[in-house]
Amino acid sequence: MKNEVLSIHYRECKVEELPPHLCELVQKAKEACETSYAPYSKFHVGAALLLDNGETVTGSNQENASFPAGTCAERCAVFYAHARWPEAAATHIAIAAIDSTGQFTENPITPCGICRQVLSETQKRGGRNLHVLLYGRSGVRIIENIEDLLPFSFDLDAE
Ligand code: THU
Hints:
Blueprint: E1 11-13, H1 20-32, E2 44-51, E3 56-60, H2 73-84, E4 90-98, H3 113-126, E5 131-136, E6 139-143
Parallel strand pairs: 4-5
Antiparallel strand pairs: 1-6, 2-3, 2-4, 5-6
The structure holds tetrahydrodeoxyuridine (THU).
The site of tetrahydrodeoxyuridine has 14 residues, from helix 2.
């Protein structure tokens, strides 16, 4: 039997330390929280996706009284981007959230498992790393490869 250990890589910085175009992407994710429909959880998430054609697509969580019918901000943005610009690769996604106190979360929130799987396929489809920027009032956490968020993702090609 072999024992293996995986380690992940991430960076942290203040939002002001980001290059201007990524500061702007984080700002768009924060603004997207305002379009969230979250009457049940009162947790308002915004995502902003930057594409290699220069376009930015935003999304927010959209809940439903039939709970599983709702969707997360990340998937809202990613699926719209693929539907609108199927040939474009996504290069960066910024994520922010306002909690039930009405404030942006102190610590960055991280995508749920289903969104990680979707982001993983988005990265694969684009053929280049999809950088993730997770915003919190305490700072921004940056993950440069989705594999660091979801090692061993499901992949039919692995058959
Ligand atoms: N949510 C997101 O939109 N993205 C995440 O990364 C985590 C959770 C949403 C789903 C639900 O509408 C609310 O936040 C509470 O879980």
